[in-house]
Every structure is written in structure tokens, then in C-alpha cells.
Automatic annotation (TrEMBL):
<comment type="pathway">
    <text>Amino-acid biosynthesis; L-tryptophan biosynthesis; L-tryptophan from chorismate: step 5/5.</text>
</comment>
<protein>
    <recommendedName>
        <fullName>Tryptophan synthase alpha chain</fullName>
        <ecNumber>4.2.1.20</ecNumber>
    </recommendedName>
</protein>
<dbReference type="InterPro" id="IPR011060">
    <property type="entry name" value="RibuloseP-bd_barrel"/>
</dbReference>
<keyword id="KW-0028">Amino-acid biosynthesis</keyword>
<dbReference type="GO" id="GO:0005829">
    <property type="term" value="C:cytosol"/>
</dbReference>
<feature type="active site" description="Proton acceptor">
    <location>
        <position position="50"/>
    </location>
</feature>
<keyword id="KW-0057">Aromatic amino acid biosynthesis</keyword>
<dbReference type="GO" id="GO:0004834">
    <property type="term" value="F:tryptophan synthase activity"/>
</dbReference>
<comment type="subunit">
    <text>Tetramer of two alpha and two beta chains.</text>
</comment>
<keyword id="KW-0456">Lyase</keyword>
<comment type="similarity">
    <text>Belongs to the TrpA family.</text>
</comment>
<comment type="function">
    <text>The alpha subunit is responsible for the aldol cleavage of indoleglycerol phosphate to indole and glyceraldehyde 3-phosphate.</text>
</comment>
<keyword id="KW-0822">Tryptophan biosynthesis</keyword>
<dbReference type="InterPro" id="IPR018204">
    <property type="entry name" value="Trp_synthase_alpha_AS"/>
</dbReference>
<dbReference type="InterPro" id="IPR013785">
    <property type="entry name" value="Aldolase_TIM"/>
</dbReference>
<dbReference type="Pfam" id="PF00290">
    <property type="entry name" value="Trp_syntA"/>
</dbReference>
<feature type="active site" description="Proton acceptor">
    <location>
        <position position="61"/>
    </location>
</feature>
């Protein structure tokens, strides 16, 4: 049976469209706002939504997303509370949802229990940035019992292992645009096009570029290189602006609507 993520990319391909994949952190600034933001993101044109589970030591995240995790962790947030939130969301939307979660959180919660609750609550995919390829193989086999995609991450520095990486996963390949952590970038390396060519050479699933995409101009420039684009830090900045202005949903909706217009 095809996953929601796979079906979404098939529909987009039939329309010759690209996927817009925004990222927000669960519980930033609270879980009720996260529910409202997911619904606003979908209305603004999001095709798949990435939900970060807040973590105290997010190695792959830059300062903006680290601040989001810190705001979320000031609340009594738990993984069970996040699953409850997803169940609430599933009463209102069927938009594909993906967790970005660090493996220590999964391990401490209990891997089998985590996967079971992902399936029962309605999650569609997992991105685990700190899971080495060898351990990924074991988890990938374990996840075949669940209707959940394990989304592989490929970086320019992993060129020699790209073929192995993209074969241990499903849904789409998360292609990291450049070295370093998440955050806004004004320019992208000329080698990105070559890197994407290498990924597509081996991948049988769609590709999406993430890290650094922060404007309509960047979306316009990069959308021809992949099947989708992931936008995170600049959306978190709109949440921060919205916290100060008292209009989080409005700030995020307007920004993501502009990105959607650029990716069309």
C-alpha cells in the first residue's frame, strides 16, 4: 500500500508541480499553536509538513531552530503529548506529516513503542539526522511492518556513499544543500547541481532540497533541481515575529503563501 507521501509526490508529478515542505517545531511556542500552524501551512500551500520533536542538543540545527526547541522545552512537553497533538490534527487534516527526531529520543522512548504510536496517531514519515547508515539499515527493516517512510538524508560530503544511503529509505531523499547546520543562506554552492545529479542517478524515490532555503528568490532558483524544497529556519523566524506581534498564524501564512507562489 502506498504511503501518503508517495501518493502526494505522484499527484504533484502528474501536475508537473514541486512539493513545498515547511518545517516547524512541535510546541513552539505551545502545542495548541502547532495545531493551528499546521492547518495554516496547509491552507498556504504546503504539500508535506515536517514537525520537529524538540531536543536539548540538536546537532544538525542552527541557532534559529535551536531557539524554537528551547521555547518548546520550557513547556511540560512530552513525546506522548506530541502524539496526542497529531491525533487531534488527524481529525482535521490528512496532509502528510513527517517527524524530524533525534534517535536518542526514539531510543529512550522505546523504538517499537515509538513506531507503533507513529502509526496509530497518523504520522507518515521519520527523518532521523543522527542515525548512522549501519543502524539505519536495522531500523529500516523494522519499519517495514509499519506504513511509515524512513526518509534518508544525503549531503554533499557523503558522495561516495550516496548509492548506499538512498537505497535505505523511502518517501523522498532529504538532500542537504551545503555543509554545516540549518539556517538561512544567501547563496548556494555551484556544486549543488552536480550533487543533485548524483543523488538522482541512484535514487528511485523523489528528492527534496533542504538547509538554507529562506526566500521566494531561493525557491525560484532551486526548484528545478529537485522534486521538492524544504524550508525551516525562515519560517521559525516568522513565528518569532508573530510572537512579538501577537499574530503567529498570519505571519507564517503570508510568508509560506509567497513561497508557494514561487514554487508553482
Amino acid at each position: 500500500m502506498k504511503s501518503r507521501i508517495e501518493r502526494k509526490f505522484e499527484v504533484l508529478k502528474s501536475r508537473q508541480e514541486k512539493a513545498l515542505i515547511p518545517y516547524i517545531t512541535c510546541g513552539d511556542p505551545d502545542l495548541e499553536t502547532t495545531v493551528s500552524l499546521v492547518l495554516a501551512l496547509e491552507k498556504a500551500g504546503a504539500d508535506i509538513i515536517e514537525l520537529g520533536i524538540p531536543y536539548s542538543d540538536p546537532l544538525a540545527d542552527g541557532p534559529v531552530i535551536q531557539r524554537a526547541s528551547q521555547r518548546a522545552l520550557k513547556n511540560p512537553i512530552t513525546i506522548d503529548a506530541v502524539f496526542d497533538m497529531v491525533e487531534e490534527l488527524r481529525k482535521q487534516t490528512m496532509v502528510p506529516l513527517v517527524f524530524l527526531v533525534y534517535y536518542n529520543s526514539v531510543f529512550r522512548y522505546g523504538t517499537e513503542r515509538f513506531l507503533k504510536n507513529c502509526s496509530e496517531s497518523g504520522m507518515d514519515g521519520l527523518i532521523i539526522p543522527d542515525l548512522p547508515l549501519e543502524e539505519r539499515r536495522e531500523l529500516y527493516e523494522q519499519m517495514k511492518a509499519y506504513p511509515i517512510d524512513l526518509i534518508p538524508m544525503a549531503a554533499p560530503t557523503s558522495e561516495e556513499r550516496i548509492q548506499e544511503i538512498v537505497q535505505v529509505g523511502s518517501g523522498f531523499v532529504y538532500c542537504i544543500s551545503s555543509k554545516g547546520v540549518t539556517g538561512k543562506r544567501v547563496t548556494f554552492e555551484d556544486s549543488l547541481a552536480h550533487f543533485m545529479t548524483q543523488v538522482k542517478k541512484y535514487a528511485s524515490i523523489p528528492t527534496a532540497i533542504g538547509f538554507g532555503i529562506s526566500s521566494q528568490e531561493a525557491v525560484t532558483k532551486l526548484k528545478g533541481l529537485s522534486d521538492g524544497l524544504i524550508v525551516g529556519s525562515s519560517i521559525i523566524e516568522k513565528i518569532e515575529e508573530g510572537i512579538l506581534a501577537g499574530d503567529i498564524e498570519g505571519k507564517v501564512f503570508d510568508f509560506v503563501r509567497g513561497l508557494h507562489q514561487a514554487i508553482e
